[in-house]
Amino acid sequence: AHELTLEALDADDRRSEIRLDGERVSTAGAWAVWGPALAEGGGSTYACWDELVIEPGTGDLPWRPRCVAHDDGAWVPIGFPEPVVGPFLRRAMAVDDLGGLWIAYDDNDRGGATDGDGETLRLRQYLPERGWDQEREGVPGVVFGEGIDLALHDGMALVSVATSFEKATARAERHPEVWQVYSEFIGTQVWTRVFDGAEGESKTQLVDD
What we know:
- By secondary structure, the chain is an all-beta fold.
- Helices cover 0% and strands 53% of the residues.
């Protein structure tokens, strides 16, 4: 088993870093890191996190997601489907029997419940021999999503999220939703909502990507 930690630092140019098995793996120039996650299975191990990067002269402070895979005793960068994310990205990770990585995530770029039309819940796959799958539209309209979880079963994925219908009350009133996702690496991705906690019962809603 591998150990993933977020270490606080007492330095002006770096406030935190990510360590894997005691080795720093976050970018040396990152001012801060957040959201470390580790997933193992199928003979593979992956770790992901976000880095706050200060870009001199631009005024930008982008959060850049990073993922690495354990390969032949070393941690190898594998990128992430989004080049830049907000400071409130939520992710869940799982590894299938063939060593492929699955990530469910929702990016709330402002951290608020009332901005825009909500976030989009997405599911992406990574295969060691092929890289990341094609871009996916996902499920739009997630409001102030929290508690994302992911499970794999019989070639399908189950993605759960706590969301709300009302932006004005989203911080205090949420309900769970569970989606079953059929996803081809190159091709169709179909989301079927199999449980809606707001209704208190199972229901079916298809989203075909």
